[in-house]
Amino acid sequence: MGRGFVWFNGVLLGRYWEVGPQVTLYAPAPLWLAGANEVVVLELDHPGTQLELRADPTWVAPPPEVQHPPKADKRVIAPQCPKRGSATFQ
Q1: Tens-digit pLDDT profile for the chain (90 aa)?
Q2: CB proximity list for 42: less than 8 A, separation 6 or greater
Q3: pTM (predicted TM-score)
Q4: What CA–CA distance (Å, rounded) separates 74 from 51?
Q5: Alpha-carbon span 5 to 40, nearest angstrom
Q6: How far apart are alpha carbons 59 and 24 in whole angstroms?
Q7: Which 3 state secondary structure label does DSSP give 79?
């Protein structure tokens, strides 16, 4: 498994990538047909020999260099304004 796209009965289910976060795709019930169903996989890195169908999804945490940094403190300190009537003009 590398990275690529999957279509199910002509509908794009999405993309996958071995580094995550998504390595499994969900095919909702209305897409399933009675009898045969068509799965098309466009693998961009490594050609595969098998396709695995699972009942539950698998999630992978992104590598550290892809993870978002913690949110910064958003407090803003306003500059001190002079009191009314105390401003001086030159």
Answers
A1: 688 899 999 999 998 887 776 767 888 889 999 999 999 999 998 887 877 888 777 766 655 665 566 666 666 565 665 566 555 544
A2: 4, 5, 6, 7
A3: 0.58
A4: 46
A5: 8
A6: 7
A7: coil
